[in-house]
Design brief:
This protein is 21% helix and 30% strand. By secondary structure, it is α+β, with helices and mostly antiparallel strands.
Length: 301
Amino acid sequence: MTIRAKHLVGLLLAPLLGACLLAGCDSGPGGDDNDTSQSPRQRERARQVADAWRGSAAATAWSKGYYPMADTVQAPASGWHSKADERAYEIRNFTLRGELPAATAAKGKVGWPSGDSVTRPLWGAEKAYQSFALANSTGARLTVTGAKLGTTTITTSRGTATVPAWLFTLDGYDTPLKRVAVTPSKLPRSPIGSTVQGSAGGLWSIPRLAGTAADGRSVTVKAANGACDDGPVVRALETDESVVLYASVTGAKSGPCTAQMLMHDVKVELHEPLGERVLLDAVTGRPVPYGQPGGPSPSWS
């Protein structure tokens, strides 16, 4: 193909892609399998969720809030000195030696490169420490010897933000362990109610977001399936304002089956970078959270 022809194809495809995002287009696994006969019902539910959020009060509140989409506890930049220390961090096994300072202010500022900012309640160092020092077991431990208030950067629903953070000094380390010191914004009430798990042709909910690619062109989510199927499938309905994920399972088998839930990381490719579009779950009609509820890094309170 000549350079001129390539340029012409690009000009023709650009408006088509724009129309795709405006109308809502699907991305994710391609081809047919033995479970796609009911996928129109799943896509219809995804479209209902996207339509409900478009221009809603919830979407406006989401676009103005602070919702972290990465770990709010950040390991030392220098890395762990040993496998034992890494394991202690993974199981949150810490010891406090010394006193922690009190918060110097009631609120802290979250700022984005665009100049937008919000103020959020500021955690004290003691509360921040307790949020990640969750274990009390034998074996290797990490020792916290002090803390000071500083800043860090974190991926949010609106891109990378600079946020207040407690910088915890670890015995034997030159760089601190950081814990974001401000609380997330309250999750807005969804403009659409949830649907029953397994409805709409076998929809499954998306428990949480596991990560977003650096270029925003894919997301990795936790998706569940049972012991008598071939695994989860996650697709995305993209619009200019949202990305609605809808999950199902493939290869479901009839007959007796053990009652267990298996969890997998599933990567979903997107037509366009996620950007500031809200990532929604078709079953709940709510934003997909990052982190375990009640864990050290939930997306919202």
